[in-house]
Specification:
The protein is mainly alpha-helical and 196 residues long. Helix content is 75%, strand content 0%. α2 runs antiparallel to α3, α3 runs antiparallel to α6 and α4 runs antiparallel to α5.
Length: 196
């Protein structure tokens, strides 16, 4: 019992010393400024920059999936592509409404450009693919890569950067939808519906 009490007093003393050295006791009256919702946040992006990246994700997924709706030969692939179009169109409409509600004007960020560059490379592969089973395979493989990248980006950078609770919730819903489409693409690939 005596050793435990002694350790507690030692810890209390150590904490008090650290606070005093940091200027916490009788020092300056200055307070650390609180970041504003439009400035850089934990994830390094402002709400306006997050808006730009989300817009890039939605627009590029809609463009690629629209191409697959027209060119895919397998019905499962076409249905997946249509769900991607529908969900990203709905997500963009919801987020656009939030941009207006919270007076957010998307501000370009390098992550948004990276999303667009990845999608452009994927579009080039799809444009070069012959219609039919090979197109389906290239689309599914590309979606697995892009959707996985989108999930990580939304989860690791965008959600943690958003400071508006409703905005964060919408991003979490988008992440969950993207994750569902990723799992669906994985099932299509593993089912043998597209050639290897």
């Amino acid at each position: 019992m005596g050793k435990i009490l002694m350790r507690r007093w030692y810890l209390v003393g150590a904490v008090a010393l650290l606070v005093a050295q940091a200027g916490g006791c009788g020092g300056s009256n200055e307070q650390t400024p609180t970041p504003t919702p439009t400035g850089p946040q934990i994830g390094g992006l402002s709400n306006a920059e997050v808006a730009s990246v989300v817009q890039a994700i939605n627009e590029t997924e809609i463009q690629l999936a629209t191409l697959a709706v027209d060119r895919a030969s397998d019905d499962l692939v076409r249905r997946l592509a249509q769900r991607i179009v529908d969900q990203h169109t709905q997500a963009q409409a919801q987020l656009t409404q939030m941009f207006s509600q919270f007076s957010l004007q998307p501000v370009n960020h390098e992550l948004g450009q990276q999303v667009r560059d990845e999608a452009t490379r994927e579009r080039t592969r799809l444009d070069a693919a012959p219609k039919g089973g090979m197109f389906d395979r290239i689309f599914i493989d590309g979606q697995l890569q892009l959707l996985n990248s989108d999930i990580r980006l939304i989860n690791n950078r965008l959600v943690e950067s958003a400071t508006i609770p409703e905005y964060r919730q919408a991003l979490e819903q988008l992440r969950d939808n993207v994750n569902d489409r990723f799992n669906e693409a994985l099932l299509i690939r593993d089912s043998g519906a597209v050639p290897h």
